Amino acid sequence: MSATGSIVVGKKPDRKANAKGVWDYLSPVTTWILQNPDGKLDPGAGFASHMELYSAVYNYSVYGYRVEAGAKGVCVMIVASLRLAALMLEFFLGNLNLAAQVLYRHLEGHLASHATELAERCRELRDTDLLNAHISELNRYEKAARKISNIFSYMDRRWVPRWREKDKTVYNICEMALRQWKPRFIDTIQANETVFSEAMLKQIASRGVNEETRELTIVKSTINSLLRLSAAAEFYDEKTKKKEECFDVYQEVFEQPFLSACRERCASQISQASAATDSTNLLRTAHRLVQETEDPVVIDLLHERTVKELVKQNNAVLVTPHVRLWWSSVLDPLKSSDQPLKSWLDLLSRFAIGQDEDFNRLWVLAGRVYNGFQCSDVALEDFVRSTTMESARMQELMDLVSQSERLQKAFGGGLDKGHKSSQWSVSLLPTWSES
């Protein structure tokens, strides 16, 4: 055996070598690749050539069953009947799979051990240092896995697809390597804590507080890495003929803690605002929390499934329970005023030019939820029908709507994000004037 740098190159195993002999030949090479993913295996410097390494895997995958099955199976083949011969052929094919499986499990354990070693080095890191180390080490690990998969490409092409029909824990080499990262690297560092999600949430929360120290690029890169780790478990569903997406790592490490933190924050602040029995303050608090949690800069970091869940969660916590109260706070004073129609037109005039901020907040929040305008529709119709609308007032309202793009959009529907629009359409106005 000859030594070259940190790698020891042994003699290439022959076709009679068992799994231990083949793995003893391959393991120093895989170790070197994992430690030097950007390096090159140079046969002139004492390394085995790529073809020699590939041949070692090929020979064992094809001929290894002879060694592992032993002579007993061969003797039975000789003396067996034609039917038994067919059964034994299946037996040998099974041993062919078993031979490759032994090598596959050796490699799987080797990659898992390497990921654990990396985790031990990074165990004490926190915040951006931890996220940077995770991204850097994972990129190196992925690059090394791709090089190793080239050596085991025969197993990837021939054995993995066949064996995966029996064992769903078998993946191609690159996917198998990525599947080791979550339990061996992330879980080893986190133990019973949530240091990864805490580090990401801390960077998101710091946004707007200290623009210079904000590292949202790191958060985006970490989220992308979690999505890649999740994608390693995706599979093709034979029944639906579709590739089933997987988000398990992304959900566990980031999405669930993120949504939980947003829910707790919103629920706490909206509860405090509700206790004050001030509907205007409650409306402003809800609108502010929606703006903060759905900031475009933060939304850009998230996967679309998380954005949908966040919007749904905000609507359930901040809008739906309070929208009737908000509409009552707007319409009740109009009904009790001396000139209700004038008050209503004044309100719409201020809304048309963007002066009534609270009414604008209410309109935006009500448009986020199903039937957000229902209570206002009923109240407004009752309000208008119970009041004689003079033709001059009617014309004033029609002119106001026709001259304001905001009111046309509001009265004619067209609320953004596909939410159910208001029933306050211009076509209803003549009906009101006739009452």
TrEMBL record:
GO molecular function: ubiquitin protein ligase binding
Membrane-traversing stretches: none
An annotated GO BP: ubiquitin-dependent protein catabolic process
Gene3D superfamilies (alphabetical): Cullin Repeats
Highest taxon, organism lineage: Eukaryota
InterPro entries: Cullin (IPR045093), Cullin_N (IPR001373), Cullin_repeat-like_dom_sf (IPR016159)
One Pfam entry name: Cullin
Stretches assigned to the Cullin N-terminal domain: 48-392
Similarity remark: Belongs to the cullin family.
Name the UniProt record assigns to this protein: Cullin repeat-containing protein
Native species: Coprinopsis marcescibilis
